[in-house]
Design a protein that fits this description.
Number of helices: 13
CATH superfamily of the largest domain: MetI-like
Structural class: mainly alpha
Shape: globular
Order of helices and strands: HHHHHHHHHHHHH
Largest sheet: none
CATH architecture of the largest domain: Orthogonal Bundle
Oligomer: single chain
Helix content: over 70%
Number of strands: 0
Strand content: under 5%
CATH topology of the largest domain: MetI-like fold
Length: about 300
């Protein structure tokens, strides 16, 4: 009995040690990003990346906040696109996944194959661009940043896998009580799908928040530029100026031009809201990933 306790304690110690080491591998790079964003560009060039800045400075952030109205406007656009896009995509994805998960629906398998096929093969950039610009005429509007990602095959299949575990008897009991399909979906299916909906909503929010490509394709108005695309343009401008400085075409002090520090500062600005929101969804996120994994 004593030997069993020692083995059990040793195995727990190894498990704890593994998770501590794994956590350090996740935390230390993040600390490096914070440190570099508050470092001087010359210190990085001379000494490389340091976990503690040799010279603490907020110059990279001051450089990015030279036009605060533009940055705030980009933040508001990204927040609006993320919130509206996540809600719309979550509702439509859940409805489509529910239809595909119903075993009594004859078109379930053909439609599931169609969704899976689009996961492997897409129409390409040119048809996508023609559809948005020439047929729907929603280019340079906020809809062009939302509609292309409303239905994503992987999210549909993920939600379908969760809904397939719901007992058919639960749906039948709703029908016996006189509930229609819409009432069954909204009053029975959605309430018991909160963990999956929260997990899927987090995935969708990541897609919308991190996207800059749609803005590159469709947005011309400066008032509709999202945060990621605005930071992408700033980074391109910095790279252009750095290249010009190296070629000798522009006479500016290179030490006053942030490069790596600006990259890390932009990473912090872009990741900040997501890092703030994630803890509120953590319990649903973990439950949504594990629910349905073990069937009784």
């Amino acid at each position: 009995m004593e030997l069993h306790r020692k083995k059990h304690g040793f195995s727990n110690w190894l498990i704890h040690l593994w998770f501590i080491v794994f956590s350090l591998f996740c935390i230390i790079p993040f600390l490096y990003v914070i440190s570099i964003s508050f470092s001087k560009e010359t210190d990085i060039a001379l000494h490389g990346y340091q976990l503690i800045p040799k010279t603490f400075t907020t110059f990279a952030y001051e450089y990015l906040f030279e036009s605060p109205k533009v940055l705030i406007s980009s933040y508001l656009v990204s927040i609006a696109v993320t919130v509206l896009g996540t809600i719309l995509s979550l509702i439509i994805t859940a409805k489509l996944a529910y239809v595909l998960s119903r075993k009594d629906f004859r078109g379930s398998k053909p439609m599931s194959f169609f969704v899976f096929f689009t996961l492997l093969f897409s129409g390409g950039l040119v048809p996508w661009f023609i559809l948005i610009k020439n047929f729907l005429h929603i280019d340079d509007t906020i809809l062009s940043l939302i509609l292309p990602y409303v239905i994503m095959p992987w999210h549909v299949l993920l939600m379908k896998g969760f809904l397939s575990d719901i007992p058919p008897a639960l749906i039948e009991s709703g029908k016996i009580d006189g509930a229609g399909e819409w009432r069954i979906f909204y009053n029975i299916i959605l309430p018991i799908s909160k963990p999956a909906m929260a997990t899927l909503g987090l995935f969708i929010a990541f897609v919308y928040w991190n996207d800059w490509y749609l803005a590159l394709l469709y947005i011309d108005s400066p008032n509709l530029v999202p945060l990621q695309y605005m930071l992408y343009r700033i980074m391109n401008n910095i790279q252009f100026l750095s290249t010009s400085l190296q070629s000798g075409n522009i006479s500016i002090d290179l030490s006053k031009m942030p490069n790596e520090t600006a990259r890390m500062a932009m990473a912090m600005l872009a990741a900040g809201p997501i890092l703030f929101v994630f803890p509120f969804f953590q319990k649903y996120f973990i439950k949504g990933l594990t629910v349905g994994a073990v069937k009784g």
